[in-house]
Amino acid sequence: MSEEMRRENSEGKTAPDGRVVLCGANSYEQKYYFNKDFDKLPSSIQDELHILCVLFTEEVGGIFTVLFEEDGGVSLETVAAQEDYLYDEVSAALFLGEVRRKRQELLEALSLYYRAAVLKEDVKLFPEAGE
Predict the structure, then answer these.
(1) What are the φ and ψ backbone dihedral angles of 80, each rounded to 5 degrees?
(2) What is each CA distance from 98 to 28, 61, 76, 93, 104, in whole angstroms?
(3) Starting from the edge strand earliest in sequence, which strands make up the sheet with 63-68, in order?
(4) pLDDT in tens, the chain (131 residues)
(5) Start-end of H helices in 1-131
(6) What's the predicted TM-score (pTM) here?
(7) What is the residue extent of each domain of the chain?
């Protein structure tokens, strides 16, 4: 991740590709970031995201980010500095898979929230809402 992208993400702006940063953690700076545009999310969800991000960077290192795609989907990303020889890409990918499996309900709820609150889609039209 470029320094410019890191700076934009830490300021809560959209990523250069149009995605919106929800939250993230940086193991190099020992910092957690939460986008204040989403402070209406329940505090329990905000706390769960905080724990998830910090735990990821404690286990794997690098920078971990939760983003909303333009269509409302949720993406999880991890990157590391080139000089970080302790960062293990295989472990990071395995941990990402585990997070996606164990937190699938949370990720789906975040997507539903974003699509309804930000994209202003009609909740009645969501296939997930009828289940």
Answers:
(1) -135, 155
(2) 23, 16, 12, 9, 10
(3) 31-34, 20-26, 63-68, 74-79
(4) 333 333 334 455 577 788 999 999 999 999 999 999 999 999 999 999 999 999 999 999 999 999 999 999 999 999 999 999 889 899 999 999 999 999 999 999 999 999 999 999 887 776 655 44
(5) 3-10, 43-60, 89-102, 104-113
(6) 0.83
(7) 3-130
